[in-house]
Recover the amino acids of this structure.
């Protein structure tokens, strides 16, 4: 019903209720004198004042503007105010008139007035809740968490016709809420009871509605929920729902990232702002998974200019368009197509833009591919890094951050060895340069183009099997946004020459990751299957972030350590680098791995 139709109808209904209330109030007290009501000027005058006052206060408190299908305690308070002030006006009219106040009549009138106005409004909500919202075709839903977030989700689901979910029960670990009813839904048990509740109430969907929940707790709840056949969803942040940024219809599926058991770290915003705001920042490999996310995170701090440097034009085009959509009016965004192996071009770029900070994310990272193409790994990861780093030194860059890898620790493969060489290049430069050179090591990032997640998803979509190299293989994982934020934070901690190591948490079995992804995709492991293919060339069973000589447990910032990795001498290192591309492939591999593992003595026989 439109506003123009609804207001006259409500005014007519309220008018009948007001007059009925004062008449019945008089009759209740004077059952044998009903005709006296019409001859009493005081009561007739009071009725008119009460009627007019009610409509005045109804407009003042916007009683006619409410959507009563969503009525709650707030609307009841508004009704109480409107009715009470109306009665007070009628009382004042009786005092100002004949001076006789029908106090008992007014009290009964107030009660009837409250009851009838309340019933007339809340009856519509009750009708919708009981007979409309629980209609057929909606999926029966269990809400985990009966706090403010869970009840908000329940209320919005009950009142949102566009959502195909209907809440039927809560579970909560707070024993004080057990068997309590909220919005007509019962708290049926605790989180451990989810399998029984799902079976009893024929639940089809489960919503985790605890915004303050930790990743560890999400994993515990997911493990319990996964024993059922119900689909598992998680709510957005309660602040986003209540402020209207997102709707309950935007409930998302639980992702692998939610099951890592890693908690977000609070960044030192002031130090990051101080180093980035108003500065010129250059990001190499800006179109890649890590590079593009670093660009997104940097733009939040509003640098004066950001230079997006990459070799692939399509990936640079994508991140350029994305950033321009949000920041074009406040940040000078410069896309640059260049190959870090082209020394002349890199020096030209550094001279032209004079960046204050450089994040060097460009690299070849795929272990088996680099094992088969070691010269390309050397040219890109070693020579490319040297080009960018020496250009930064030449043109006075303040801070240079190398994105390294856990594979640089005790590497048995070419990729890891070249990343360790890259670390040693910037460590040597740090000893004599005014530029603060640092490296940041971390493990695998979920969702990056080179990670196992996209591969597993494609294999699941194709019906399986999912290929895993070995049932016991483990890797460290973190999300792309977390890795990028910690890289930026590490840059603010740079004093020169450090190898920062990000705390990757506990290592994760690749086979467990595959099983979780299969389950999250709505299948069972038996349906998709897991095939073990064996270790590929250059792969390690277990990854490390520091070797025994580098371990330094103290954190310089939450989740950031400093390793004690010592570089090879500058002259010896650069002499060796110049010889690499003239060697045979096998000699090159051997030298790379020996040097990266600090086995200097073994080099003598190769000279």
């Amino acid at each position: 019903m439109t506003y123009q139709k609804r207001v006259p109808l409500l005014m007519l209904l309220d008018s009948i209720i007001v007059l009925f209330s004062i008449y019945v109030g008089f009759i209740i007290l004077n059952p044998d004198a009903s005709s006296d009501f019409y001859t009493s000027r005081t009561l007739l005058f009071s009725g008119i004042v009460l009627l007019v006052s009610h409509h005045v206060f109804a407009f003042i408190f916007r009683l006619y503007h409410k959507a009563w299908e969503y009525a709650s305690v707030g609307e009841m308070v508004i009704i109480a105010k409107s009715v009470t002030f109306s009665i007070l006006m009628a009382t004042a009219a009786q005092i100002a008139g004949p001076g006789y106040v029908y106090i008992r009549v007014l009290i009964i009138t107030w009660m009837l007035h409250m009851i009838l106005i309340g019933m007339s409004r809340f009856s519509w909500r009750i009708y919708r809740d009981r007979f409309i919202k629980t209609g057929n075709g909606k999926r029966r839903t269990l809400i985990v968490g009966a706090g403010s977030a869970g009840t908000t989700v329940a209320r919005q689901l009950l009142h949102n016709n566009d959502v195909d979910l209907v809440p039927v029960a809560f579970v909560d670990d707070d024993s004080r809420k057990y068997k309590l009813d909220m919005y007509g839904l019962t708290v049926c048990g605790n989180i451990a009871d989810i399998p029984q509740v799902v079976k009893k109430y024929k639940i089809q969907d489960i919503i985790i509605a605890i915004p303050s929940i930790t990743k560890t707790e999400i994993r515990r709840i997911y493990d319990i929920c996964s024993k059922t056949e119900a689909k598992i969803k998680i709510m957005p942040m309660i602040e986003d729902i209540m402020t209207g940024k997102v709707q309950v219809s935007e409930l998302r599926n639980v992702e692998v990232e939610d099951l890592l058991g890693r908690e977000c770290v609070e960044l030192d915003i002031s130090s990051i702002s101080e180093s980035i705001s108003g500065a010129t920042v250059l990001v190499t490999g800006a179109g890649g998974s890590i590079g593009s996310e670093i660009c997104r995170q940097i733009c939040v701090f509003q640098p004066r200019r950001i230079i997006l440097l990459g070799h692939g034009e399509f990936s640079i085009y994508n991140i350029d368009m994305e950033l321009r959509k949000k920041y074009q009016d406040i940040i000078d965004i410069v896309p640059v197509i260049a190959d870090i192996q082209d020394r002349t071009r890199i020096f030209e770029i550094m001279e032209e833009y004079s960046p204050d900070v450089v994040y060097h994310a460009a690299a070849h990272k795929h272990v088996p591919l680099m094992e088969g193409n070691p010269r390309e790994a050397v040219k890109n990861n070693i020579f490319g890094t040297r080009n960018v780093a020496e250009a930064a030194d030449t043109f006075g860059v303040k801070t240079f951050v190398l994105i390294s890898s856990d594979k640089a620790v005790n590497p048995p493969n070419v990729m890891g060895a070249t990343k360790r060489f890259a670390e040693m290049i910037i460590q040597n430069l740090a000893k004599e340069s005014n530029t603060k050179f640092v490296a940041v090591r971390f493990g695998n990032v979920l969702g990056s183009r080179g990670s196992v997640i996209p591969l597993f998803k494609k294999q699941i979509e194709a019906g399986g099997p999912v290929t895993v190299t070995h049932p016991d293989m483990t890797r460290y994982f973190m999300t792309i946004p977390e890795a990028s934020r910690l890289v930026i934070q590490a840059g603010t901690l740079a004093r020169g020459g450090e190898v920062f190591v990000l705390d990757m948490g506990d290592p994760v079995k690749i086979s467990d990751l595959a099983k979780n992804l299969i389950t999250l995709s709505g299948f069972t492991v038996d349906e998709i299957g897991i095939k073990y293919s064996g270790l590929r060339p250059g792969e390690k069973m277990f990854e490390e972030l520091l070797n025994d000589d580098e371990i330094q447990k103290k954190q310089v910032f939450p989740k950031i350590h400093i390793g004690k990795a010592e570089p090879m001498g500058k002259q010896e290192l650069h002499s060796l680098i110049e010889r690499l591309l003239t060697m045979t492939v096998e000699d090159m591999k051997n030298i790379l791995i020996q040097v990266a593992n600090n086995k200097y003595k073994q080099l003598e026989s190769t000279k």
About this structure: The radius of gyration is 35 Å. The chain has 22 helices and 22 strands.
